[in-house]
Amino acid sequence: MGRFKAVALVSFMSTLYRDAASAWRTTLTFLLVVIYLQSPAGAAERPARPAMNKLFQAFVGDWSVRETFQRNEFFPKGGERKGMARFRVGTGGTSLIEDYHSDGSAGKLDFLLVI
C-alpha cells in the first residue's frame, strides 16, 4: 500500500468514530500493522536503486540551515530561523531520513521527514 493511500485511509478511519479515543486506538492499530508488513527484513534484501544512491550522496550529512521570511501577514516584521538538519540513510538503505531543528524570531521548528 502506498504511503499516501495509507495516510488517506488513516484520516478516513478517524472520521468514522465519534470519540477521539476510539479513533486513536484504531489508527494506532492500523499503523502498527502497516509497519509490521513493511518490516526492515524485506527492505534489507532489496538493494537501493541508483536514483536513491544519488540522493544519498547529495544529502547525507549535517547541514546548517537558515530561513528568512519577508514581511507578510504572519510575520509583520519579517522573521528568521537558524538551525541544523541531519540527513541519514534509513534501515535497509531504501529511505532518506531528515531530522530538522531551527529556532529564531519566526519561532521554533522541529520535524522528521522520511523519503
Secondary structure layout plus pairing:
Blueprint: H1 3-15, H2 20-37, H3 40-45, H4 50-59, E1 61-69, E2 79-89, E3 96-103, E4 109-114
Antiparallel strand pairs: 1-2, 2-3, 3-4
Helix pairs in contact: 1-2
Total strands: 4
The ordered H/E elements are HHHHEEEE
Shape label: flat
Low-confidence sequence ranges: 1-17
Main β sheet profile: 4 strands, antiparallel
| Tally of helical runs | 4
How big a fraction of the residues is strand? Answer: 25-35%
Quote the distance from N terminus to C terminus.
15 Å
Number of domains: 2
Average pLDDT, rounded to a whole number, is: 76
Question: Percent helix among the residues?
Answer: 40-55%
Give the helix/strand class.
Answer: alpha+beta
Oligomer state equals single chain
List keywords for this structure.
115 residues; single chain; 30% strand; 41% helix; alpha+beta; disordered N terminus; 2 domains; 4 strands
Describe this structure in words.
It is a single chain. By secondary structure, the protein is of the alpha+beta class. The protein is built from four helices and four strands. The protein folds into two domains: 1-38; 46-115, no CATH class. The protein has helices at residues 3-15, 20-37, 40-45, 50-59, and strands spanning 61-69, 79-89, 96-103, 109-114. A hairpin with a 6-residue loop joins strand 2 (79-89) and strand 3. Helix 1 packs antiparallel against helix 2. The longest helix is centred in the first third of the chain and has 18 residues, at 20-37. The model is unreliable at 1-17 (pLDDT under 50).
